[in-house]
Write a structure and sequence with these properties.
Layout: H1 10-26, E1 32-33, H2 45-54, E2 61-63, H3 70-79, E3 84-85, E4 92-96, E5 118-123, E6 133-136, E7 144-146, H4 152-163, E8 169-175, E9 178-182, E10 187-190
Parallel strand pairs: 2-3, 2-4, 4-5, 5-8
Antiparallel strand pairs: 1-9, 6-7, 6-10, 8-9
Helix pairs in contact: 1-2
Length: 191
Amino acid sequence: MTLLASFNHPVADAQHAFRRILKAMSEPGVMVSLPLQHGWGSISPAATVVLLTLVDRETPLWLDKALYNETLLANLRFHTGAPVTDRYQAPVALLHARSDIDPQHFAAGDNLSPEKSTTVIFEVPSLNGGLTLRLRGPGLRETRAIAPQLPEKLLAFLRQRAQVFPQPIDLIFTCGEAMMALPHTTQVEVC
């Protein structure tokens, strides 16, 4: 078992990380930095910070099999105590961009109300250089364009989400030490 460090100053760093995640959620499409020296196992430092901040013993995590490894699982258990579940209705899910999982699974079943929404964290190759997404809605004074490199299944989900709005899924994209968010109230047009 390989235990890796979490925050250097647990209380102060967790508060700082929470404020940065809150900024990203309240300003859709804004890229924020979540510095950490390294990620756990095969996940980025930003995804590690999001997990350290959002999951705990009472917050089950759905974990993509593509990201499963003993280092990640051991550190999740040690630092957060979060139970890993195979139920799509978990409050938090972590997926890799190469995943074959349809994001629609997280919008089904018990997750049909915003109070029971799932926060889906996608590890993506880059937060730039993909198809352009135009964002509108709360937290945006005017339309914002972003272009993270997203998998085709997620792009298809976003196209479908435009017709069935809002869907109870908050999206977080992580890459390296950076993240951006698309809350479920954000209207997304795939260009």
